[in-house]
Amino acid sequence: MPETSRRGLLFGTAAIGAGALLTACTSNEKKDEPAANEQPVDDKPGKAVTIGFAGPQADHGWLAAINANARAQAKKYSDVTLDITEGSNDTAAQIGQIDSLINKKVDVLVILPADGKALTQAGLKAMRAGIPVINLDRIFADPQAFRCYVGGDNYGMGVNAGKYIGEKLKDKPNATVIELSGPDSLELTKQRTQGFDDALKNYPNIKKVARQAADFTVESGQAKMAQLLQAQSKFDALWNHDDDQGVGALRAIDQAGRDGFLMVGGAGAKSAMDAIKADNSVLKATVLYPPIMASTAIDLARALGQGKGVSGMAGLEIPAQVTLFSAVVDKDNVDEYLPQGFS
């Protein structure tokens, strides 16, 4: 769905692609007077904003968390009305839902397309109708189809998984790793694999010997992991792109009675973090792909609808891109990240 690679500079938990973080007003400025190039931005009620939210069907833990985060963030603001669609994985149905929001003349649209390429025309239609679009996660094929992109760092996710495994195996001669990816039809899967492969280049003692693509579901994770286990009698590490399909992968591993390797997951499900904390399985870490990006999208949509900039950033406009950082969670920091884990 071709999302372009989002490898922006990383600032703590987020990366801003079209703006730089800046300090607040200098100490000799009055606190009630913003700098000349800034508008005052705060959480006080302002102009009423109706935000339309259209996403795919929440048939996956991460997608359900996206919807939950969007709703929770909108409820924080008395000046925001959230009009959220039922969600669909059918392209025609999602286009119809977006058309309905356009006809309602919402102030801003937040769209997480089931397929970025297929939904590009819907984004363009909204923008041409004068409704700014926040494109969430799966990017449209045409940059004119959105005002701002908010998403995770898929390439960085793969890089951080590769670095974590690399550091664990750097002293092991002839180490081997395998990969359980997401659907190869998604650009984000290609980015995660590319990041992982690029990170492993820094560890010449490690070789990736097998890869299977699953579908981000428990069932596909179990089936594809069973195939990997049958084909590979021994390996040292597994990089699994998604914690939902990781549930199935762990089932296959348990059924096969296999151990002697470490597993790194992806996304940051609570079940994965619980397993990491318990430290009683091969799963030793997960690389975050934070669904709190939906909260960020709501904040930016509100600012956009009210004609505000973003606190802590220069300029009168919101940024063109925000990319969240993919932190690695293991037993050393799992307690810190557990509150962010999604069911």
Automatic annotation (TrEMBL):
* PROSITE patterns for the chain: PROKAR_LIPOPROTEIN (PS51257), TAT (PS51318)
UniProt keyword Signal, yes or no: yes
Q: Does the keyword Nuclease apply?
A: no
Sequence ranges assigned to domain Periplasmic binding protein in this UniProt record: 51-308
A Pfam family recorded for this sequence? Peripla_BP_4
Molecular functions (GO terms): carbohydrate binding
> Which compartments does it reside in?
Cell envelope
What protein family does this chain belong to?
Belongs to the bacterial solute-binding protein 2 family.
Task: Name it.
Answer: Sugar ABC transporter substrate-binding protein
